[in-house]
Design brief:
single chain, about 250 residues, alpha/beta, Rossmann fold, two-stranded antiparallel ribbon, 11 strands
């Protein structure tokens, strides 16, 4: 069984995001970039499934410019067997990403496509669901626990009301939530070994996918600065202040 794990290159979650001075986007020059945290959790779970003897191969893939290979090599160092890089310098939005991933699915024929539930740069939470619809296969999103039994996956997922358990037939699309696992630490010997693992480059044009954006971003601006706090002496003073602000 193959597991395909798409990953996205994003600004590291520890970095304070800054908007460019001209408002055209987010500053990425000289900024630390990493694997999207939810994608890293999905990759860790795929590796654990393989280590349990329930999968034969874990393939990591990414869509973007040459810089994405840094994150793909990290995925290989974590334990993925090989990598696929769909090369494009265009901005890729969720629908275009799902269409490109569908071409990779048709090429590799995986039993599971395991994505992060969302990327921390755009927070769209759409690609996994769109891929499942295009692939016409079941989906189980926001997974906090995954159990495999033959061609069936039992997924515990986090919803507003608590936990929900779904049983889906494979092949299927799964997306990971934050509490599914804690990704492993990559060691230097693994990084060196990853340099010898295969990384295949595929031009987006070769897949026949239109990268044209469905949405156009016109401007970016940082959120307004928070006003300073004020200490209140009593509960009544707090109630009066909330009434004055129209909050009560």
């Amino acid at each position: 069984m193959k597991i395909l794990v798409p990953i996205k290159r994003v600004v590291d979650y520890n970095v304070r995001v800054r908007v460019k001075s001209d408002g055209s986007g987010v500053e990425t020059e000289g900024v630390k970039m990493s694997i999207n945290p939810f994608d890293e959790i999905a990759l860790e779970e795929a590796l654990r499934i393989k280590e349990a003897g329930k999968a034969e191969e874990v393939i990591v893939c990414s869509i973007g410019g040459k810089d994405c290979q840094q994150q793909l090599r990290t995925g290989l160092a974590m334990g993925a067997d090989r990598a696929l890089h769909v090369v494009t310098d265009d901005e890729i939005q969720p629908l275009a990403a799902a269409r490109a991933l569908l071409k990779l699915v048709e090429k590799e024929d995986p039993k599971i496509v395991f994505l992060g539930k969302q990327a921390i740069d755009d927070d769209c939470n759409q690609t996994g669901q769109m891929l499942a619809a295009l692939w016409q296969r079941p989906q189980a999103t926001f997974a906090s626990k995954v159990d495999l039994d033959g061609d069936t996956a039992t997924v515990t997922r986090e919803v507003d009301a608590g936990l929900e358990t779904l049983e889906v037939d494979l092949p299927a699309v799964l997306t990971s939530d934050l509490r599914l696992n804690e990704p492993r630490f990559v060691k230097l010997p693994d990084i060196m070994k990853a340099k010898r693992k295969p990384l295949e480059e595929i031009a987006l044009a070769e897949l026949g996918v239109d990268a044209g954006p469905s949405l156009r971003m016109t401007a970016f601006e940082p959120p307004p600065k928070r006003s300073g706090g004020r200490m209140l002496e009593s509960v009544q003073e707090l109630v009066d202040e909330l009434k004055n602000k129209g909050l009560l």
